Amino acid sequence: MSRHSIRSIAVQITHTVVFKKVNLSEVFAARLGNNFKPEFKSAVKALCYETIRHYLQLEDCWLQFVDKKPKDKMVQVILTQALAENRYMQKPAHVVVNEAQNTAKKLNKKWSVALINTCLRKAVEAKDHKNSSESAHYAHPQWWIDQLKMDWPEHWQELLIANNTKAPLWIRSRSNYKTSSSDKAHSSIKNAYKIEAKDIRQDQDFIDGKISVQDASAQLAAHILQPNDKDYILDACAAPGGKTCHLLELAPNCQLDAIEQYANRAKKIDENLLRLKLKANVLLADTRQAETWFKGKKYSKILLDVPCSASGIVRRHPDIKMVRQAKELKQICKDQLDLLNSVAALLEPGGKLLYSTCSAFRQENSDQIRLFLNSHPQFSEIKLKYPFAINCEHGIQIISGREDMDGFYYCYLVKNEL
User: Fold this and answer.
1) pLDDT of residue 127
2) Rg of the chain's alpha carbons, rounded to an integer?
3) Residue-range domains of the chain with CATH
4) 67-81, 120-134, 341-355, 385-399: lowest mean pLDDT where?
5) Distance of alpha carbon 323 from alpha carbon 55, whole angstroms
6) Hey, how many other C-beta atoms are within 10 angstroms of the C-beta on 53?
7) 351 — phi, psi (to 5°)?
8) How far lies 206's CA from each of 16, 20, 85, 235, in Å?
9) Does 100 score more than 80 pLDDT?
10) 378-393 b/e with 16+ CB inside 10 Å = b?
11) Which of 65, 258, 310, 402 could form a disulfide with 235 if both were Cys (CB 3.0 to 4.6 A apart)?
12) Parallel, antiparallel or unpaired: strands 232-235 and 255-260
């Protein structure tokens, strides 16, 4: 495949994400599949990631050099992608201008070649460009910025800046893993290491089950729950199984039910368990419909890592800020509270429940816990304290980028006997 093909496919994928609001992983699976060599797919993905990560900022730059924004959205993406290559992938100006024109021809947009040439030649030289809006400056939708300003008046800029950086590779290790001199241990989270970026699937330690890919902030879940071999644990929203496996690594003889609603995601739990030689009872079910799967024995510990806006992991998934819509938050929050109410009834007296999200929005986090505690007087909060986390009204928030971790929220609850 030629470099022109890499660019044209990347343009089409980015167009689908930005304008049709489809998750990047879904578009990659549909467009790339198993039809291309790994190095080709890697090149396409790298280009898409950088373009989408900085899309709103880069679009704002080239817009100042056209009299009218092109109606053809594919052409808009070609211009934005070319600037991403120049500014964030260090491709020479003359190369990106020429390749953008070639990409336009390949995508049957020959009419736009002159416009692309004129606009891009000016844009690549505009080193002192001043953004026309706050949204362009931070490369986030304005509603997102406004929400963070309200939720985190002292940290909103820190959050937005962190979201626009590349995430590192964190691993969770087992006792038989031998660290290298380049591995950087987390300051507080045991067995969490930041390692050099690589294709982890080809790493022998990964194949042998000595390490797993998991951000340090996500690894905190199992450490908070502190599982032991006598526990009966429910991982209520388990896919892809990272936290499930971590709990089992800490307590191999505990009894654990892992629930996932969708078969393709449940398969990933099974794959992780197999690779790590661990055992759990994986159930394909809707957690909220306990009557279809619950056998009557209540749990001593429950992990509820609810589906959320994913606003804390934008470093890893830059498409989230382009795909996610403000209007979706209301339904997301309703689903979270439904899940919380459902699993609360499955916890034995004295049992512990850990609620978590990878969101930075308070309405999904401490606001949810306040609503829950107001309607469930038998529950109370167990206060958490970590040097890298911010204490909220309820629970703790890990800010994206702190100690190079993803954004995560945790609240630990106990069910008291009334």
Assistant:
1) 79
2) 23
3) 3-133 (1.10.940.10), 221-415 (3.40.50.150)
4) 120-134
5) 12
6) 24
7) -75, 160
8) 33, 36, 32, 23
9) yes
10) ebeeeebebebbeebe
11) 258
12) parallel
SS3 state at 320: helix
CA torsion angle 108 111 113 114 (round to 10):
180
pTM for the full predicted model: 0.95
3-state secondary structure of 138: helix
- Quick check: 233 and 301 in contact, CB under 8 A? yes
- 3-state class percentages of the chain: helix first, strand second, coil last, to nearest 5: 50, 15, 35
- Reduced to 3 states (helix: H, G, I; strand: E, B; else coil), residue 194 is strand
Count of other CB atoms within 10 angstroms of residue 122: 14
Q: Please indicate whether residue 119 is annotated as part of the active site.
A: no
**Positive/negative CA dihedral, 319, 323, 326, 327:** negative
Q: Which of 48, 358, 392, 411 is catalytic?
A: 358
Residue 418 confidence (pLDDT): 65
Cis peptide before 227 (omega within 30 of 0): no
**AA identity, residue 339:** L
